Amino acid sequence: MFDIDRWQEIYHVLAKNKLRTALTSFGVFWGMFMLVILMGSGNGLKNGVLGNFGSFATNSFFMWGQTTSLPYNGFQKGRYVAFDNYDTEAMRRELKGAQVVAPKCQLGGYRGTNYVTRKNKSGSSFTVTGDIPEIIQISPRKIPQGRWLNQKDIDEKRKVAVIGPRVRDVLFDEGEDPIGEYINISGIYFMVIGVHQIEFTSDFNEQDLESIFTPISTFQQAFNWGNRVGWYSIMAEPNVSVADLETQARDILKKVHHVNPEDHRAIGGWNMAEEFGKISGLFVAIQVLVWVVGIGTLLAGVIGVSNIMLVVVKERTKEIGIRKAIGATPYLIVSQIILEAIILTGIAGYIGLSAGVGLLELVNNAIGPQGAGMFKSPEIDLGTALICLLIIIISGGFAGVIPARKAASVDPIVALRSE
User: Fold this and answer.
1) pLDDT attached to residue 407
2) DSSP 3-state of 39
């Protein structure tokens, strides 16, 4: 393996016909290049799509009231199911396996925006919600300034608010500390106690940048919501089926509100775990497809190497015959041909791998850390790159097997007679 003469011979064989070597290598180069690009692009699409889930806990689901579609216990269909604090108590008491049951209210309803002022500054696109402190477990976020809501804020119905970074930028001067200052929400003053920041933005959670969180008890009292609740965000405990927990929650709410057990329209919901699982499964299938297409393209290049190596063996018939006549063993002949094939595919494959990674880096730098729409951070990890290198080596070995066997079968006498 480390005999200098063998390496010199490999160099001379590959350099003897540079054009043929280059064209043969291009097939392997292109196969590896396409494999890397396809894998990186698949990862970029995956990062972009899954990033749209934001930082929400994927073991969570959401539920809201709708109108009934079936009569039940004397109630006609078409009745609206409105949640309240009693539902919250029932859920926390009876729902087994829930780590967080978070009631939520939103001023103006779902996707509603509000007019918020401070001194001579104002904003009209802000989302104002009433929440409990535990909502931060379902929708994790950092608090770079001040603090988050706590239980005392709920119990004492404090008029406090945690604002998003865009709210701070609109209502406060650059460099001004918002903590301890007051903002006016629909005629009611709230003291800013913190600024929240999501870990990264996407189409799914960008609205969080303009959100204002208040204690739910304060919200219900200040904005005349009574004991009404808009909807629920519920997170399952580890190893608890989110689908089963959602079914259990629906049954509890249907029982409280006298809804027909077969009425599937009375309570709306969105299961984060289910949606995340569908998307994850889709990308597993895409990844398998990428490997199949990429390796198929690489295999085409390897077959080309094998065919060219057969031509090389035929051209070197007399040389191989002389080597066998002076004592070269079949092992030496076979190992020499296989080594030549591995070197040829290895160099071409490594260049293809490097070119693919380089192109992905250029694209990554061009689109930036935020990505471009549904495409973000196209890349392959070190483990995948090492697997690609291993594929190159193995492919080279297979490419040289048939030519090596052909070389090993050369009869020295016949070879010396050939022209």
Assistant:
1) 66
2) helix
Closest CA to 100 of 221, 272, 335, 356: 272
How far is it, in rounded angstroms, from Cα 98 to Cα 269? 16
* Residues 400, 343 contacting (CB under 8 angstroms): no
Q: Phi/psi zone of residue 150: left (φ > 0), alpha (ψ -120 to 50 degrees), beta?
A: beta
How far is it, in rounded angstroms, from Cα 325 to Cα 318?
A: 10
Type of residue numbered 258: H
User: Which residues of the chain fall short of a pLDDT of 50?
Assistant: 1, 419
Q: Which tokens go with 361?
A: 């880096």
Per-residue b or e along 282-312, where b marks 16 or more CB atoms closer than 10 Å to that residue's CB? ebeebeeebbeebbebbbebbebbbebbeeb
CA atoms 139, 106, 265, 49: torsion sign: negative
- Whether the CB-CB separation of 157 and 220 falls below 8 Å is answered with no
**Per residue in 357-366, pLDDT tens?**
888 888 888 8
Question: According to the model, what pLDDT value does residue 14 have?
Answer: 66
**Structure-block tokens of residue 282:** 């889709």
Spatial neighbors of 4 by CB under 8 A, at least 6 apart, are none
The string of pLDDT tens digits covering residues 269-319 is: 888 777 777 777 777 888 888 888 877 877 777 777 777 777 766 766 666
pTM above 0.85, yes or no: no
**Residues whose CB falls within 8 Å of the CB of residue 156, separated by 6 or more in sequence, listed in order:** none
